[in-house]
Specification:
- This protein has about 120 residues and is an alpha+beta fold.
- It has helices spanning about 10-20, 25-35, 40-50, 50-65, 85-115, and strands at about 40, 70-75, 75-80.
- It has a three-stranded antiparallel sheet.
- A hairpin with a 2-residue loop joins strand 2 (about 70-75) and strand 3 (about 75-80).
- It is flat and about 65 Å long.
Length: about 120
């Protein structure tokens, strides 16, 4: 396999911005609420328990980053995940976190048994 070329500082900044956007609990909750398909803002508010202003602010940030898209449907704005790779990334991170927590639990159980 050929060695990968180093990334430019500008490209690294784009990657860091994407991770910063995804690194927020509220935004991850909104993405999770959109896993089942497009939803109106009011439905996202109901599904997440967040305020409309908070949901709208975070959805705008996700849209600016190209993670979600929005379309007007009469008086409603409908959001959906525009970059499905975000689900693959979430699956990878969730699996990694789950494995780490499992190892920690097993280690803690081993320590407790040794007392």
């Amino acid at each position: 396999m050929a060695a990968k070329k180093p990334l430019s500082p500008e490209f690294i900044e784009h990657i860091a911005r994407r991770f910063r956007t995804l690194g927020d609990t509220t935004r991850l909750t909104l993405i999770q609420s959109l896993m089942g398909g497009p939803k109106a803002v009011g439905d996202i508010v109901a599904a997440t328990g967040k305020t409309q202003a908070n949901v709208s602010k975070h959805l705008a940030l996700l849209a600016d980053e190209g993670i979600v898209s929005r379309q007007r449907d009469g008086n409603h704005i409908i959001y959906e995940v525009a970059d499905p790779v975000v689900f693959q990334l979430c699956d990878l991170v969730c699996g990694s976190v789950r494995n780490r927590l499992t190892r920690e639990v097993k280690e803690n159980e081993r320590l407790l048994r040794s007392k």
